[in-house]
Design a protein that fits this description.
alpha/beta; two-stranded parallel sheet; five-stranded mixed beta sheet; 2 domains
């Protein structure tokens, strides 16, 4: 599947990568200091081991962000929803097993599960994409069959992407 991001989403990924690189550099510096402080007892150097685990975490996160950027295509969100069909860049309201939920189907860099912004290539988004307003269907979500009805499909607005936590 092709990877899409808006210009803003790609900028967010690049900012996260820069922050991660700075944090990784700082942890590596501390790791060097911890290694030199206990050169005779390297096998009993708990601070060094903790920092080594931190380096591995930062390295993994950087690789994940880089994987999102490589080959990513710029694709802005549509200004309108054609025919009420759910797709990339759509704010969709659904009824799932009797409860109402609202999700924004976003590209790389704009995802935030706390704000119900899910990537268009997530399993839930994939179950919704291509469906029309009023359509009812059963989808396998999180290894569980769910009854879903599409209630609304509107384009994502710029203000929908403002992150109130920052």
């Amino acid at each position: 599947m092709e990877r899409y991001a808006t210009r803003n989403g790609l900028r967010k990924i690049q900012e996260r990568m820069q922050t991660l690189e700075e944090q990784l550099s700082e942890v590596q510096k501390k790791m060097g200091e911890a290694a030199s402080q206990s050169s005779e007892t390297w096998h009993d150097n708990a601070p060094f081991e903790v920092l080594r685990a931190d380096v591995a975490i930062f390295d993994r996160r950087l690789k994940d962000e880089l994987a999102a950027v490589v080959g990513c295509q710029i694709r802005e969100y549509p200004q309108q929803v054609t025919g009420g069909i759910v797709g990339y860049g759509v704010n969709v309201v659904i009824i799932r097993d009797g409860k109402e939920f609202s999700y924004k189907l976003v590209g790389y860099g704009d995802e935030d599960s706390d704000l119900n912004r899910i990537r268009y290539d997530s399993p839930l988004a994939q179950a919704l994409i291509g469906r029309s307003i009023g359509e009812k269907f059963i989808a396998n979500i999180n290894c569980r069959k769910s009854q879903i009805e599409i209630r609304e499909a509107d384009p994502i607005k710029d203000e929908d992407l403002i992150n109130p936590r920052y």
